TrEMBL record:
SUPFAM superfamilies: FAD/NAD(P)-binding domain. It holds the Pfam family FMO-like. This is NAD(P)/FAD-dependent oxidoreductase. Its cofactor is FAD.
C-alpha cells in the first residue's frame, strides 16, 4: 500500500457497520443508538427491504417456531394475541420497531458486503460493497469503519439445499422450493407432496391442507414434533392486569424459565423426554402405531431442533384426512408422482422440496487481515461473538434451543461493552486471545443434516469457559456481560484519523 493509499485508508466513514437489517440487525441498531449515542453506525442490507428472514420467506403459513415474547425484543413488548406468530405479523413488528426508534434511518439498502480487509496499521476495516439500486443496476463501492458486526446469520439466503432427487426433472407437475415461493401458485384441489420433515414442512402441510385435495409429508426419518398453544393464556392474563412493559418482562422470564428447564430435562433425562413427547402426540392422534412409525425418531429430543406445531395444527389436519405422513425413501420421481423404495407411489400435482437451507458463514463475506485471507475453520469463537485472528469483528449467532433473539441481544450488548472497553483503554483494535490450547468442537452442536453438511467451514468453539458456545440464556446473561475483558481481549493503541468526528 502506498503512502497516499494509507492516508486515504485512515479516513473513517462510520464507527460501526452492522451487516443485515433483519431481526438481529435492527436489535443491534437499537443497542448501538442507546448505549453509544456518540458513535456513528450504519446497517448494510443486501436486499431492498427490512426484515431479513421474515421478508424473504413467503411460503404459506410461515411463522415463528419460538414464542414472540422471547423472539421479540426485550425493549419492545409484543402486543399481538398470538404467542406463535405468522410471518407477516413479525415483519410488521420489525418495521414498527425500526421506525419507532429511528433505526430505519441508518439502513443502506441494496448494499451487499462482498469482502472486508482489516488494516492492523490503521485499525480500520475497508469493506468491498456491491450496491444495487431499485432498478437492478449494480456498481462497486468501498466503506471504512472501525468495528464490523455481522448480523446476517449463518444461512445461505440465495440458494437452499438442493439434494439429488432422481427423476425430479421428469415430473410433469410443478416443483417448488419454499425459499423461492411463487406468488401465483394455486394448490386448490391439487395433490401436494412436501418432501421434508423440518419446521418448514410441518408449517406448509396444515396451511395448504384446507384447499388442497390432499397434502402428504414425505420424510426419510421421523422428527420430534411437539404441539404448543398458539396463544399463551397466562400471558393474556398478565397483560390484562399489568402495565405493558412489566407484563412483557414477567412473561419473558416465565417463558425463558420454561424453555430452559425443558431443554435441560430433555438432555439429562432423554428416555423420559422421549416418553413425554410420544405420549403427547398419541393423546392427540389417538393412534400408537401411527406415532411409533412416523413421530418417534431414533435420535433423542434436542439432538436436533424440536419442531413446534401451534395448536396441534399438523395433527388436526391428519385427523381430518386432509393430510398424511409417509416415512419412506424416494426411488425416483415420475411424471405424475413419486415412486418409493417400498414400492408404493404417491400421486402428485405439486412437489415441494422442503429439504432445508444451506449454511453460509456470516453472509459469505470474504474476510482478510492485512490482505491475507482468514481461514474460518482455524479460528475459535469467544463468548459466541468474536473470533481469534480477526480484530474488531463480531458475529451474531442465536440459540438453537431457544429464541434466537435472546442470545442475539446478549451479543449486541457485549459488542457495546467491547466498544466501551476500547474507548476507555484508548485501543484502536482488540482481538480475543486464549490463554492456552483449546480443544476443537463444532460451533453448532446439533446432529441436524443442514448443520453436519457445512459446519466444517465455520470457526470452532472451545472446550472451556468463554470459548464455549453455551445454550443457556440464564448463565449467559449472568456471565457474558460481566467480568474483566482485559483477561481475554488483547488491544493495540488507537491512532488519530480523519473523519471520525464529522461523520455523524
Amino acid at each position: 500500500m502506498t503512502s497516499t493509499e494509507r492516508d486515504h485508508a485512515r479516513h473513517l466513514d462510520v464507527d460501526v457497520v452492522v451487516v443485515g437489517a433483519g431481526l438481529s440487525g435492527i436489535g443491534a441498531g437499537y443497542r448501538l443508538s442507546t448505549e453509544h449515542p456518540d458513535k456513528t453506525w450504519a446497517i448494510l442490507e443486501a436486499r431492498q427491504a427490512i426484515g431479513g428472514t421474515w421478508d424473504l420467506f413467503r411460503y404459506p403459513g410461515v411463522r415463528s417456531d419460538s414464542d414472540m415474547y422471547t423472539l421479540g425484543y426485550q425493549f419492545k413488548p409484543w402486543r399481538d394475541a398470538k404467542s406463535i406468530a405468522d410471518g407477516a405479523s413479525i415483519l410488521d413488528y420489525i418495521h414498527e420497531t425500526a421506525r419507532e426508534f429511528g433505526i430505519d434511518q441508518h439502513v443502506r439498502f441494496g448494499t451487499k458486503v462482498i469482502g472486508a480487509n482489516f488494516s492492523t496499521a490503521d485499525s480500520l476495516w475497508t469493506l468491498d460493497l456491491q450496491v444495487t439500486d431499485e432498478q437492478g443496476r449494480t456498481h462497486s463501492e468501498t466503506l471504512t469503519c472501525t468495528f464490523l458486526y455481522s448480523c446476517a446469520g449463518y444461512y445461505d439466503y440465495d440458494k437452499g439445499y438442493d439434494p439429488d432427487i432422481p427423476g425430479l426433472d421428469t415430473f410433469a407437475g410443478t416443483v417448488v422450493h419454499p425459499q423461492f415461493w411463487p406468488e401465483d401458485l394455486d394448490w386448490t384441489g391439487k395433490r401436494v407432496v412436501v418432501i421434508g420433515s423440518g419446521a418448514t414442512a410441518v408449517t406448509l402441510v396444515p396451511s395448504m391442507a384446507p384447499d388442497a385435495e390432499h397434502v402428504t409429508m414425505l420424510q426419510r426419518t421421523p422428527t420430534w414434533i411437539s404441539a404448543v398453544p398458539g396463544r399463551d393464556k397466562q400471558a393474556d392474563a398478565l397483560r390484562k392486569y399489568l402495565p405493558a412493559q412489566l407484563a412483557h418482562t414477567v412473561i419473558r422470564l416465565k417463558n425463558i424459565a420454561f424453555t430452559t428447564a425443558f431443554y435441560q430435562f430433555c438432555r439429562r433425562r432423554p428416555q423420559a423426554a422421549r416418553k413425554l413427547l410420544t405420549n403427547l402426540s398419541t393423546r392427540i392422534l389417538k393412534d400408537e402405531k401411527l406415532v411409533s412409525q412416523h413421530f418417534t425418531p431414533e435420535y433423542n429430543p434436542w439432538d436436533q431442533r424440536l419442531c413446534a406445531v401451534p395448536d396441534a395444527d399438523l395433527f388436526k389436519a391428519m385427523k381430518k384426512g386432509k393430510a398424511s405422513v409417509v416415512t419412506d425413501r424416494i426411488e425416483r420421481v415420475e411424471a405424475d408422482g413419486i415412486k418409493l423404495v417400498s414400492g408404493a407411489t404417491l400421486p402428485a400435482d405439486i412437489v415441494i422440496t422442503a429439504t432445508g437451507l444451506q449454511l453460509l458463514a456470516f453472509g459469505g463475506i470474504e474476510l482478510r487481515v492485512d490482505d491475507s485471507p482468514v481461514t474460518l475453520s482455524e479460528q475459535f469463537v469467544w463468548q459466541g461473538a468474536m473470533m481469534t485472528g480477526v480484530p474488531n469483528f463480531a458475529i451474531c449467532i442465536g440459540y438453537t434451543n431457544a429464541s434466537w433473539t435472546l442470545r442475539a441481544d446478549i451479543t449486541h450488548r457485549l459488542v457495546c461493552r467491547v466498544l466501551e472497553f476500547m474507548d476507555k483503554r484508548g485501543f484502536g483494535a482488540v482481538v480475543p486471545t486464549p490463554d492456552g490450547p483449546l480443544e476443537e468442537r463444532p460451533l453448532l452442536d446439533l446432529q441436524s443434516g443442514y448443520v453436519q453438511r457445512s459446519i466444517d467451514a465455520f470457526p470452532r468453539q472451545g472446550d472451556r469457559g468463554p470459548w464455549q458456545v453455551r445454550q443457556n440464556y440464564v448463565l449467559d446473561s449472568l456471565t457474558t456481560l460481566r467480568g474483566d475483558l482485559s483477561k481475554t481481549l488483547k488491544g493495540t493503541p488507537r491512532r488519530e484519523r480523519v473523519g471520525a468526528s464529522t461523520a455523524r
